[in-house]
Task: structure prediction
Amino acid sequence: MIALLVAQALQLHGFVDVDYALNPSGATASFLPGTGTTASRANAFDLNAAAAELIVEPKPVGLHLTLAFGSGIDVVHAGEPALFRNVYQASAIWSPTDKLSLEAGIYPSHIGYETLFSKDNWNYTRGWMGEFSPYYQTGLKIAYAFDARWSAQVHFLNGWQNIRDNNRAKAVGTQVAYAGDQLSVGVNTFAGPELPGDDSHWRLFADLTAQYKATGSLSLGATADLGHQDLPAGGATWHAAGIYARLAVHEKAAVAARAEYYDDADGFFSGTPQVLRDGTITLEVRPAAPLIFKLEGRVDQSDKAVFAGSTTQVLAIASAVAAF
Result:
C-alpha cells in the first residue's frame, strides 16, 4: 500500500509564518482565554506557525498529513493530548468516483469563512467568528458533487474541535454548497452533545458563508452564525455576522478589510456576556510567488472591559510567510 501511494505523485509542501505585533495595552495581546491564534505574543517577534504537508492525491486512495508548530498552534491545540498537539491534519481519502469522496481522520472543519492558517485568508488575524468555531475536526466526511456547481457533505464527528472525544456521544455536521462563476455560497450545520462527560445536552449551530467576485479585482464576502448550547440549568445562545472585501490594487498587492459583530449574550464562548466588534484592514504584498507580506491594523471593542481592563484593544501587526 505504501509503495502504491508513493507511486501516485507524492507532494511535499510547507510554510513558515512569523509576525511582529504591537499592542499598547501590554506585553501580551489581550485576546480572551482560549483564543488569539495570531498575534498571541505582542511587542516581540513570534513564530506564529510553521507547517509541513505530505499529500497524495486520491487515485482512488490518498492521504493528507500536516504537522504544525508555533504559538498559534499552541493556542488552538491547548486542550489536546500531547501526542496530537502538532497534528493539524492526518486523514486518509478514498474517491471511488469523480463525484464521491470519503475522508477519515483529523481534517479541517467544514465550518467558517476563515481558516486556521493566515496565508489562506484575506486578513492576517482571524475574527471572533473564526476563533469561536472549529478550525479542525475528527471523524468521517462523505462528500458528493451533484454537478459542477452543487455539492453536499455529511460529517460524523467526535465533536466540536477535538481529536479525542470528551464524552461518549457523537456529533453530525452537514454542508450544502454552490460554486458559480461569480457567486459561491455554503450552508453549514453542526449538532451533537458537546459538554465534557455529558451525552444529553446538545449544541446546535448553523453557519452561512458567501463570496462574490464583483469585478476582476474586487471580491466581497459575508458570513453569519447562529448557535445554541443546552445546559443543565437553562441554555446559552450566540449569533454573529461579518463582511469582508478584498481589492487587488496591483498584480502583486491587495488591500483587504473586515467588519464583524459577535453577540455572546450568555458568555458561553468568551467567558463574559458581551457584544464584540472588530474592524480590520490589511495590506498584502506578494513580491514573489513563495512570499507573502502583510501589514495589518485591527481595533476590537466590547461593551465590557475585557481587554486588560479596557473596552478597546488596538493591534498593529507586520507578518511574513514563506511557502513552498
Summary: The chain has three helices and 16 strands. Residues 2-323 form a domain with the Porin fold (CATH 2.40.160.10).
